[in-house]
Structures
1.
Amino acid sequence: MQERLLYLQPTDYNHKMKINLRMRINFILLLLALNLPAAFGAQCPDQGLQLQVLGSGGSSLSPGRAGPGYIIWYQGHARILVDIGPGTAMRFRKTGARFNDLETVLLTQVNSAHTTDLAAFMSAAANGGRLQPLPIYGPVASKTTPSTVSFVRSLFDQKRGAFRDLGSLVSPLGTQTFKLKPHNTPVVSKKIVTGENKNTNIPIFSNAIFKIYNFNASDKKGEKLGWLIKAGTKKIVFTGDIQPNTKNLKDFTSNADILVVHHAIPESGPNSTEKIFLSPSAIGSIAYKAQARQLVLGHRRFVTLGKEKETTAAIKSKFSGLLQFANDLDCFTP
């Protein structure tokens, strides 16, 4: 009987060990499925200029990817938001960013894929105690989209807005100091003459750290915007959903430290003929002409996922620089 017990005890122990190991593996797989690891790597370096991706997906709601959105960090503080697609508000919380640090919001388009979380952001900012006004810059109206000012007022107007509980954010009669300041920003063609007698573009926004310029990103002037953000000698450029026949890009994209281009269609296949997006080979051409130091592909629609090798080959046929596919909460240093 004693020999039988000695035989069974190790077997029972091994069986329990196998069960515990299996439970641990299942738990790790569950964390991966819930996309929780991204939260552990959400913090960008707290020195210098950083670009962080809030959402790397598109309007197709790809699993694990929020819609397009980005943060510009400077010295550990979130200073600028670029686009605020679906899910970006939750990602913002994961980064540790604070609403009080934001200096401006930039929109490349006024449509659902790029602006869905605006109400969520503003509600959280108001409830979080933000006091200073927040300017929002975006496109003028087109045949299919409202202007930035009209869009903001359609959301928050106290009498006709969709979210009237936040009406004090745009009402001039409200007592709180936190106000939204929307601006329609047509493509700037005016130039000033500097002391060296050289024409210089006028920034849309500037302060002690940043100078921000917009540029046309579609064949219809002002319907889609690109943004150039300068901080000292560093340049980060967002082309948004830029269209193939957009002109005069080189003036704004030249020598970009980071060039962010939206990767919405594959090089081949049924979706590759969409005329409102750039193909990977066209993206490569733009990056080559810009002599970009880093090319970051955002807004990765469902039709492009799984085709990274094909995309890389098409881009690398034109551009030999650093190519990176964006994922949610990735950080890039210019």
Note: The two ends are 72 Å apart (CA to CA).
2.
Amino acid sequence: MTEVFGAHYAGAYDAIYGHKDYAGECDLVLRLVQRHGAPPCAHLLDLGCGTGRHAELFAGRGYTVVGVDRSEAMLAAARRRCPKGARFVCGDTREVVAGEPGTFDVAVMMFAVLSYHTENRDVLAALHNVARHLRRGGLFVFDVWFGPAVLVERPERRSRTLTDAAGRTIRRTVTADLDVMRHRSTVSIDTEISAADAPPSVSHEEHAMRFFFPLELEALLAQAGLTLLQLGKLPQVDETPDTSSWNVIGVARKASPS
């Protein structure tokens, strides 16, 4: 078994998610930031930045960006993609130091990064670290798996085959279990990459993912000094989440000390 987001999977990641609307998500984040009062052009912390697709776009929209990820393989791709306008740091979102306390106007955890913390202590550590990096009144934008939808729709086996820009064939199969009592799903990802001039290479990764419920999120954020301002469907952020909303997006504000 490889590490989570190891070099093999990281090498196929951008091809697998080539269809993802990163630009639309960045536009949505910035609309939420404007709505809830942060400066339109400031310092942004991208926690769990992966291969830098969001970071590159935020930098292009005028933000000074610091991206954080625990996978060196993913960060190598991010640095190639965005050699200017963003700085990248390898570290764990629960404890990484990406700047002086109160440095950032906005922090983001996109693509269910917060859901990778499955225990309460780890969620709280990550949220406290977000709050530590934000200035007073700074905003935290995040998306997570939404518990009511996960319990109704339940994880399914999925398989996809595609050809990337280099002509390689990539086959990805995903299976998952469901632990209702622990609010967790363990997602098994098998990836095979085939090229004309080399034998197939394979990897297996298991990603433990937590799903959240609205009052639970509100309470966890509050313990870290963050006030939940909005929770909506992704990408229809102004619609109330329901049992068909697997992913939801939230906005929280760092509370000012009383």
Note: Residues 150-209 form a domain with the S-adenosyl-L-methionine-dependent methyltransferases fold (CATH 2.20.130.10).
